[in-house]
Prior knowledge:
The protein has a domain at 4-53 and 91-125: Alpha-Beta Complex (2-enoyl-CoA Hydratase, Chain A, domain 1). 65% of the residues lie in helices and 0% in strands. The protein is built from seven helices and no strands. It has helices at residues 16-24, 26-35, 41-46, 59-71, 75-89, 95-107, 110-125. It is globular.
Amino acid sequence: MGQPEARLGIIAAAGGTYRLPRIVGTGIAREMFFTGKIIDAEEAYRVGLLNSIVEDNEVINKAREMMVKISKMAPEAIKLGKKALNKAASPLHDHGKIESEYQAILFESEDKKQRMTRFLEKRNKK
Protein backbone atom coordinates (compact mmCIF):
# COMPACT_ATOMS: atom_id res chain seq x y z
CA MET A 1 0.00 0.00 0.00
CA GLY A 2 1.25 3.45 -0.68
CA GLN A 3 0.79 6.93 -2.05
CA PRO A 4 3.16 7.07 -5.02
CA GLU A 5 1.45 10.02 -6.71
CA ALA A 6 4.25 12.53 -6.07
CA ARG A 7 6.51 10.39 -8.27
CA LEU A 8 4.06 11.09 -11.08
CA GLY A 9 3.78 14.82 -10.39
CA ILE A 10 0.32 14.68 -8.82
CA ILE A 11 -1.21 14.36 -5.34
CA ALA A 12 -3.35 11.64 -3.84
CA ALA A 13 -7.00 11.98 -4.76
CA ALA A 14 -10.30 10.28 -3.89
CA GLY A 15 -9.95 11.57 -0.35
CA GLY A 16 -6.39 10.40 0.16
CA THR A 17 -5.17 13.76 1.44
CA TYR A 18 -7.68 13.86 4.28
CA ARG A 19 -8.61 10.22 4.89
CA LEU A 20 -5.12 8.76 5.28
CA PRO A 21 -3.97 11.26 7.97
CA ARG A 22 -7.12 10.51 9.97
CA ILE A 23 -6.28 6.82 9.98
CA VAL A 24 -2.50 6.72 10.34
CA GLY A 25 -1.71 10.18 11.69
CA THR A 26 -0.21 13.19 10.00
CA GLY A 27 3.42 12.11 10.35
CA ILE A 28 3.06 8.75 8.63
CA ALA A 29 0.74 10.23 6.00
CA ARG A 30 3.28 12.96 5.21
CA GLU A 31 6.06 10.42 4.91
CA MET A 32 3.97 8.31 2.52
CA PHE A 33 2.85 11.33 0.47
CA PHE A 34 6.21 13.08 0.25
CA THR A 35 8.44 10.04 -0.29
CA GLY A 36 6.11 7.75 -2.22
CA LYS A 37 6.75 5.14 0.47
CA ILE A 38 5.08 1.78 -0.07
CA ILE A 39 4.28 -0.21 3.07
CA ASP A 40 3.74 -3.93 3.49
CA ALA A 41 0.80 -5.64 5.18
CA GLU A 42 2.47 -5.78 8.60
CA GLU A 43 3.16 -2.05 8.65
CA ALA A 44 -0.30 -1.29 7.26
CA TYR A 45 -1.77 -3.31 10.13
CA ARG A 46 0.50 -1.62 12.67
CA VAL A 47 -0.56 1.90 11.57
CA GLY A 48 -4.26 1.05 11.42
CA LEU A 49 -4.87 0.70 7.67
CA LEU A 50 -5.82 -2.96 8.09
CA ASN A 51 -8.03 -4.62 10.68
CA SER A 52 -6.30 -7.97 10.27
CA ILE A 53 -3.92 -9.92 8.10
CA VAL A 54 -4.97 -13.30 6.77
CA GLU A 55 -3.46 -15.80 4.40
CA ASP A 56 -4.69 -15.57 0.81
CA ASN A 57 -6.52 -18.89 1.08
CA GLU A 58 -8.36 -17.68 4.21
CA VAL A 59 -9.71 -14.34 2.94
CA ILE A 60 -13.13 -15.68 1.90
CA ASN A 61 -13.55 -17.65 5.13
CA LYS A 62 -12.66 -14.64 7.28
CA ALA A 63 -15.02 -12.41 5.29
CA ARG A 64 -17.81 -14.96 5.73
CA GLU A 65 -17.15 -15.13 9.48
CA MET A 66 -17.54 -11.36 9.70
CA MET A 67 -20.64 -11.43 7.50
CA VAL A 68 -22.26 -14.06 9.77
CA LYS A 69 -21.51 -11.95 12.87
CA ILE A 70 -22.96 -8.83 11.24
CA SER A 71 -26.02 -10.69 9.96
CA LYS A 72 -26.89 -11.63 13.56
CA MET A 73 -27.10 -7.97 14.58
CA ALA A 74 -30.24 -5.83 14.46
CA PRO A 75 -30.54 -4.65 10.83
CA GLU A 76 -31.81 -1.15 11.66
CA ALA A 77 -29.06 -0.68 14.24
CA ILE A 78 -26.48 -1.65 11.63
CA LYS A 79 -28.08 0.67 9.05
CA LEU A 80 -28.19 3.68 11.39
CA GLY A 81 -24.81 2.89 12.89
CA LYS A 82 -23.33 2.89 9.40
CA LYS A 83 -24.94 6.25 8.63
CA ALA A 84 -23.68 7.72 11.91
CA LEU A 85 -20.13 6.48 11.29
CA ASN A 86 -20.16 7.84 7.73
CA LYS A 87 -21.34 11.24 8.93
CA ALA A 88 -18.75 11.30 11.70
CA ALA A 89 -16.03 10.62 9.15
CA SER A 90 -17.19 13.41 6.85
CA PRO A 91 -14.89 16.42 6.71
CA LEU A 92 -16.07 19.74 8.06
CA HIS A 93 -14.41 21.44 5.12
CA ASP A 94 -14.92 20.46 1.53
CA HIS A 95 -11.63 18.62 1.25
CA GLY A 96 -12.85 16.87 -1.88
CA LYS A 97 -13.25 20.23 -3.62
CA ILE A 98 -9.79 21.36 -2.52
CA GLU A 99 -8.29 18.06 -3.66
CA SER A 100 -10.04 18.28 -7.04
CA GLU A 101 -8.85 21.86 -7.60
CA TYR A 102 -5.23 20.97 -6.80
CA GLN A 103 -5.40 17.81 -8.87
CA ALA A 104 -6.72 19.79 -11.85
CA ILE A 105 -3.80 22.19 -11.58
CA LEU A 106 -1.29 19.36 -11.34
CA PHE A 107 -2.77 17.38 -14.22
CA GLU A 108 -1.97 20.28 -16.52
CA SER A 109 1.62 20.66 -15.35
CA GLU A 110 4.54 19.82 -17.60
CA ASP A 111 6.22 17.96 -14.75
CA LYS A 112 3.25 15.62 -14.37
CA LYS A 113 3.17 14.96 -18.12
CA GLN A 114 6.86 14.05 -18.17
CA ARG A 115 6.67 11.86 -15.08
CA MET A 116 3.55 10.06 -16.28
CA THR A 117 5.13 9.47 -19.70
CA ARG A 118 8.27 7.99 -18.10
CA PHE A 119 6.13 5.81 -15.85
CA LEU A 120 4.03 4.51 -18.75
CA GLU A 121 7.09 3.90 -20.92
CA LYS A 122 8.76 1.93 -18.12
CA ARG A 123 5.57 -0.08 -17.55
CA ASN A 124 5.20 -0.89 -21.25
CA LYS A 125 8.75 -2.32 -21.34
CA LYS A 126 7.80 -5.04 -18.83
